[in-house]
Write a structure and sequence with these properties.
mainly beta, Thrombin, subunit H, 12% helix, six-stranded antiparallel barrel, globular, 125 residues, 1 helix
Length: 125
């Protein structure tokens, strides 16, 4: 008997829609080099999803998050519903929550049997 993890993903989306809020994941793509500014142009592409922003607890400070990033004072984590967003977050993406913009330091995805049920993002301003 196999378990249907798509139902779990739908439940995560329903709960984060009810108890979280809308968030924006911003992917930044470098464009052509502009000699006038000595830099590359950046193209932003925004994706809307549902998430809940939470604090790490005091015991977690100084410990490692998934992938080796160290948790510092002021860092937060976001629970993001994968079924509510069309792209997966990666390191260095930006996460806009209300009027605050956070940098994604690391992503841990709960994906039993290959079905993404929940993303947990380590964020820093």
């Amino acid at each position: 008997m196999t378990f249907d993890y798509t139902k779990s993903a739908a439940t995560a989306l329903r709960l984060l829609t009810k108890f979280g809020r809308s968030v924006t994941l911003r992917k930044q793509t470098p464009g052509a080099y502009d000699p006038a500014t000595s830099s590359n142009t950046i193209t932003n592409t925004d994706y809307t999803g549902q998430g809940a922003l939470l604090d790490f607890n005091e015991r977690q400070l100084g410990t490692n998050f998934a992938g080796g990033s160290t948790i510092q004072q002021g860092d937060k984590y976001l629970l993001l519903a994968p079924s509510g967003i069309t792209v997966a977050p990666v390191t260095n993406d930006l996460l806009i929550f209300g009027s605050d913009t956070w940098t994604v330091l690391n992503v841990k995805t709960l994906a039993p049997a290959g079905t993404a049920v929940l993303h947990k993002l380590h964020l820093r301003k």
